[in-house]
Amino acid sequence: MHSAGGFSGGTAAARGRRAGGSKVDQAYAALKRSIVSGALAPDMPIDKNEWCAAFEVSRLSLTTAINRLAFEGLVVVEPQRGSYVAKIHLEDVRQWMLMRRALEVEVVGVCAADMSDDAIAALGQNLAYQKAAITSGDLEGFHELDTRFHRQMTERPSLARVGEVLDPIRTHLERVRRTLLPEPGRPEGTFHEHEAIFHAIAARKPDQAKSEMANHLDRVSRELHSFVARHPDFFEDNFPIEARMRELAGDNQKM
Q1: What are the boundaries of each domain within the chain?
Q2: pLDDT one-digit tens code per residue, 231-255
Q3: Please, what sign has the CA dihedral across residues 132, 136, 141, 142?
Q4: If you classify domain 89-254 with CATH, what class do you get?
Q5: Which residues contact 129 (CB under 8 A, 6 or more apart)?
Q6: Architecture field, domain 2-86
Q7: Do residues 50 and 68 make contact, with C-beta atoms less than 8 angstroms apart?
Q8: What is the mean pLDDT of residues 175-196?
């Protein structure tokens, strides 16, 4: 399915069937996965004929799946244009990043203060796998380990509710993170930032851990600023781009 951003309809159908559920649910899940991962780029049309063939569903069933994605803000449906992947809204990104930074900086401080030795060892093991993924060029594997690294910090009773709040925020930011990750040097930079966070936790230094986490998340904001300038068509609310991204950077510096 070349017109679908290089995403293979056959592969999508196979993955969807393995996932179980109705064909509508399978099509919905595969389309959402393709959008979030960046396989379907912003503003790319969704070819209903190709997706109907891949999932052996009617146009009505596929339209149901697309409407669910439109409700979530991932797809835009226009009468004269059809269905296409929604652009990323910068204002939403600004708020999601602000919430994530506020929560994760505090979380890592708590971890440095009283995280168990076993949990710290598990973070170290994750880092070893991250390094192996970079060495082998496994970008998808690295991304999954990156997500897991952050989630491990809230997998304890005293932070479980914080984790429940953070999970949907991370999901909303997934498209941004997937967009930025292939940028040259980004995986290596992320790994070194994770190392610094880990060492601060292992050394039981809450203030240093919070500083390293803030630096890590602020780097994402700076790189998004640069990416928006190079790829403005990926985003909505692009005017004024510079003012919006300066506001984001300013919010982060105040925290």
Answers
A1: 2-86, 89-254
A2: 777 787 744 444 544 555 555 555 4
A3: positive
A4: mainly alpha
A5: 141, 145
A6: Orthogonal Bundle (1.10)
A7: no
A8: 82
